[in-house]
Amino acid sequence: MNVIPSLPEGYEISTDPARIDAGRVHHWLSTDAYWALGRSRQKHDAAIEGSLNFGVYATPSGEQVAYARVVTDRATFAWLCDVYVGPSVRGKGLGTALVAAVREELRPCGLRRILLATHDAHGVYARLGFRALDRPDHFMALPLE
To answer: What is the value of pTM for the model shown?
Structure first.
């Protein structure tokens, strides 16, 4: 699927780790994202450090308004996680454009798939080509918490 949703005017996406507002992202995730509630700042900072990070920024203020993180070796594996759009800018298509940007950034790597987990946003991801696993019985998890 090659649909690349356009980012609304007045916003830009960057993978520059220096632009990530780690405090803001930590607040979003640890207080408002069901999958990361209560995540410590230390764990959050370690996750950012070990990942490919995407930020959406309002122009020209530079304020970060959305975030996504990918755990990847850029050769064989990618896990899309921590996708979050700030409440004040939801409904503008920023999340869809952000996930499309992740897909396009990783496309040249030759990955077989990008994995993700979602409780309630299947339709959002399906519009960008994500689908349920063909063989979920081939995947396993080792819970450590």
So the answer is: 0.93
